[in-house]
Amino acid sequence: MNPSLSCYILTYNSERRLAEVLDAVAPLVDEILVVDSGSTDATHSILARYPVRVLHRDFDNFRDQRVYAEEHCTYPWILSLDSDEVLSPQLVARIRDLKVQSFSLADGSHPDGFSIRRDWFFLGRKVRNFYPVRTPDYIVRLFRKDRISTRGSRIIHESVRGERCTLVSLDEPILHYTCDSVDDLYGKVGLYTRLMAEDAASRGERSSWLRLNVYPWLIWARWYLLYGSWRDGEIGRVLCRYIRITVYLKYLKLRFRDA
Fold first, then answer.
1. Computed over its alpha carbons, how large is the radius of gyration of the chain?
2. According to DSSP H, which parts of 35-132 are helical?
3. Closest CA to 5 of 87, 70, 76
4. Is this model's pTM higher than 0.90 or not?
5. Which residues have CB under 8 Å from 183's CB, separation 6+?
6. DSSP letters for 61-80
7. Phi-psi bin for 157: left (phi > 0), alpha (psi -120 to 50), beta?
8. Each residue of 79-104: pLDDT tens digit?
9. What tens digit of pLDDT does each residue of 165-214 get?
10. Are 47 and 18 in contact (CB under 8 A)?
């Protein structure tokens, strides 16, 4: 018998891509759990068209939102998604094959999880970088919840972890449509920089004149020149301005948090 697979999706005003996400994942998994943090757009009307279980949790940070979702998934294997991450047809086929094989490999080994390639899109275009990620990245999104969890991770840019776990990479991609407009991009800044400052404070990091006035430009230069965002043309310039503003606001908020 094939092992059952839960999928959880985190939502908040997620009408933009949610139907596309659900259309791709619904035929593949045995349970879809949606953890919503108070959507006021068409998110809930979209969810009503699909066989999903919806739970509400007020948002505090990304790590604890994911831990809550993991704890409420029914089945031992979990596929975790954000509401702007669409499974490619190739990835759907690969995960279906893995389910048939009880998530084992051809050599008979049994990984504890799979890190999946994630391609990033901004304004509908695939990009080389989206701070703080150089793309494509590989992120563990398919895993056994008794072996791997988000517990103990950072509260933003969180990751799953486990002791002495075996991971295998999948090259079939998740398509991450992170922002379809400039408003989407800058709408993230307030929340993200607040959590970044909170995370930095929890790790003992301090702000300074250099980090406020020089470091944002150094980070801009690294990502634009060294990491090749210039190759993405005007979109690359937009994303690197976003980097500079994000880094500046992180340290500004950290400074006045320290004060």
1. 19
2. 43-47, 62-72, 89-100
3. 76
4. yes
5. none
6. -HHHHHHHHHHH-SSSEEEE
7. left
8. 999 999 999 999 999 999 999 999 99
9. 999 999 999 999 999 999 999 998 999 999 999 999 999 999 999 999 99
10. yes
